Amino acid sequence: MLILIIRILFFITGAIAGYQLVNVIKVPIPKLIGIISYVIIGSGVGYVLGGVAGRWLVKVINWIEVNVQKIPSLDLIIGALGLIIGLILATLISWPLRYLPSELRLLHIFLTVLVFIVLGYLGIRLSLRKREDFRGALRIFSQVKIPKATYFPEEKILDTSVIIDGRIADICETGFIGGRLNVSRFILKELQKIADSEDSLKRNRGRRGLDILGALQREPKVEIHILEQDYPELSDVDAKLVRLAKELDGVILTNDYNLNKVAELQGVRVLNINELANALKPVVLPGEEMSVRILREGKEAGQGVGYLDDGTMVVVDGGKKFVGEDVEVLVTSVLQTPAGRMIFTKLKDVEATSA
User: Fold this and answer.
1) Dihedral pair phi/psi, residue 88, rounded to 5°
2) What number of CA atoms fall less than 13 Å from residue 18's CA on the CB side?
3) Which helix (H) or strand (E) holds 296?
4) Which of 23, 87, 194, 260 has the CA that lies 20 to 30 A from 155?
5) Average pLDDT, whole number, for the chain?
6) CA separation (Å) from 274 to 50, 208, 240, 303?
């Protein structure tokens, strides 16, 4: 194809040259016949020369291609940079040559071409001689590793408990968690099994989990991706989740305390929804006052137990006799446990009476 294109170009060039020769060479024949003759001769010569030039050019290109493939990529890049620097310097150096007298036009052209050839060649040679310095610099940069996202990995894997819990849908709706959420096929099978259970409580939990997945699929801020990986040799779903998270280098989204500990022991990162909820609970300091409804007796004698709106347990010293009533209490201490936060208080009226 390249040879044909070159032949066409030479053919056209020969025809134009033949036409121009009619005005240069005076021949004792009518002008029209001369034009036709010279155009035919010029195009024929151009067609032949084009074939020769095309074949030669193809051989040169093939030779360059074969030899360039033998050159390391780094050397090619370094050589190209050296050539560019050499040509830039040649441009700057040859700029004053433009002001030579017109009588020295040929000298100007010769010196300009010479400067470009010499500096271009020197740029390539010098840059290749310094390639070890370039390689050393690249090795230094290659040893600078960008730390991986430890707390926000790309692959997030949902477990059964966090799907049934449902709070993950609200978190995604607010935009605090986005991107792709992965749900494995064995988690879907477990949800289906729970939804088909004869126990009405389990059945409702399973159906709730399926509804939550449907809500997540409709949420524009996240993308639900179904993973087909399964591990038949493992019977426990939690073990399968840990294996999957290891393979994907991902994080497990859960609210299961036991799965949280097992995953962390095996080096798998976990995002626990309960820990997030505890972190978002308002801070309560000793000495603060609050109102709480006592719902039941506590474990210790005379204690009453109530709950705040966010589910935090409040233990009231001496609150047993006020079960079912709203009381004013003073915070004495706050205890953070793996299961959540507990607030220990005493009745405000008792404090006022003792004072």
Assistant:
1) -65, -45
2) 23
3) strand 289-297
4) 194
5) 79
6) 79, 19, 22, 26
CA dist 206 and 188 (Å) reads 10
Cβ(182)–Cβ(158) below 8 Å: yes
Dump pLDDT digits (tens) for 237-276. Answer: 889 888 888 888 889 988 888 888 888 888 888 888 888 8
Single-letter residue type at 319: G
Burial class of residue 26 (count of CB atoms within 10 Å of its CB; 0-12, 13-18, 19+): exposed
Could you say which DSSP state residue 134 is in? Answer: H
CATH superfamily for 156-279 is 5'-nuclease (3.40.50.1010)
Measuring CA to CA, how many Å separate 100 from each of 50, 94, 103, 106, 313?
Answer: 37, 11, 8, 10, 95
User: What six digits make up the tokens of 166?
Assistant: 């449902």
Q: Domain extents for the chain?
A: 2-135, 156-279, 282-354
> Under a CB-based contact definition with an 8 Å cutoff, are residues 295 and 263 in contact?
no
Structure tokens given for 294: 């006592």
Contact 269, 253 (CB under 8 A): no
Question: Over the stretch 145-183, which tens digit does the pLDDT of each residue have?
Answer: 444 444 444 688 899 888 998 888 888 888 888 788 899
Cβ density class 96-106: b for 16+ within 10 Å, e for less: eeeeeeeeeee
Which amino acid makes up residue 345? T
- pLDDT band, residue 355 (cuts 50/70/90): very low
Question: In this structure, what token pair is assigned to residue 311?
Answer: 């589910």
What backbone phi and psi angles, to 5 degrees, belong to 147? -60, 140
Same fold, 156-279 and 282-354: no
> Is residue 132 classed as helix, strand or coil in its secondary structure?
helix
- Are 306 and 314 spatial neighbours (Cβ–Cβ below 8 Å)? yes
Strands 289-297 and 304-307: antiparallel
Which H or E element spans position 200? Answer: helix 200-218
Write down the pTM of the prediction.
Answer: 0.46
DSSP string of 210-272, one letter each residue: HHHHHHHHH-TTEEEEEE----TT---HHHHHHHHHHHHT-EEEE--HHHHHHHHHTT-EEEE
